Amino acid sequence: MNWLDQITENLTRKVAQESSRRSFIGGIGTALIGGAAIPLLPVARAAGNHDQPAEPSDADLDDPTSCAYWRNCSIDGFLCSCCGGSDKVCPPGTEQSPITWIGTCKNPADGKDYIISYNDCCGKTSCGNCFCNTNLGDRPTYRPHTANDINWCLGVSSQTYHCTVTLVIGVATKKA
Ligand code: ABN
Q: What predicted TM-score, i.e. pTM, was given to this entire model?
């Protein structure tokens, strides 16, 4: 037996003497349980927004408290209809901003495109209900007049954003 065989044998004997069968089985158990727990770790799941179902029903298209409601096609904010106001009226205690972001949404009832003004309601802290981020036609914020990801609480006494109303201001006659 050469010296390498002797060293290997000594090492193997040492490991065998120092490790019990119980700790070996325990190690396998830890590996199995640890592996099974990996799928439970938090991960980002696509399309996980509860407020924005992937497949809106016809009822959603007619419901102003749904992100799928046709006038909400380009919104980024909380629906005032879920915040003590309505789709057109700011909740009590808030003030409607006169400066807004304008989008265009198709009304499925008549197939026409309408110009929608997304007015922020201001003066109370964020409502927190029915957040929608549909963004049709939204542009980057470095072009503010075409961006909805902006606090439009301007020209009012408080700049604190609460929710957004959606007002029809006309029919779009030409595609932008
Ligand atoms: N226009 C709604 C909004 C308000 C504050 C911040 C981002 C977007």
A: 0.68
